[in-house]
Amino acid sequence: MAPSRSEIEADSWAFALAIYARPGVAEACLTLQNEAGADVMMLLMVAFAAVRHRILLTPDEIEALDESCRPWREQIVWPLRAIRSGLKTGPLPAPSGETEQFRSKVKAVELAAERLENQRLAECLPLRPGEDALSSEQLRAVLGNVIALFVAGRDKKPTGSLDASINAIAEAAMHDLS
Question: Across residues 100-104, what is the average pLDDT?
């Protein structure tokens, strides 16, 4: 029996939190976010689809998935992230103990917004019969397709290779198979 969308949402969120907590993954995700403009939730959802459901999303499916959550990401998640990041250095009275408490609250709201984005992605995830097996090369390729989508939409191109970051996410996700 196929899982329900609510089961997919819960499983994908747990997967995202687990993968993100693995050594080197947070840094890899932030590198891809900062250098390529990548959406970390999109990367983790695509990895989830591949690892847990053996569904290797096509570039067209990745683009459709992105379109389903882009307004939320751009209008809600990114502004919250900008506020949280801005509180690290100012404006006055930041940074201070009081503004650090406020920054922590903004971080919690940002995480809640990312959870809602994950829910949207789970609702729009194409479900079909999966592949019989998944190789790390296939996972790296599909994650590379996500990065290509975001790089293509930016004026600023990455300053270096993003392969190490893609590999870190793929390795952590493939570890989830064992």
Answer: 95
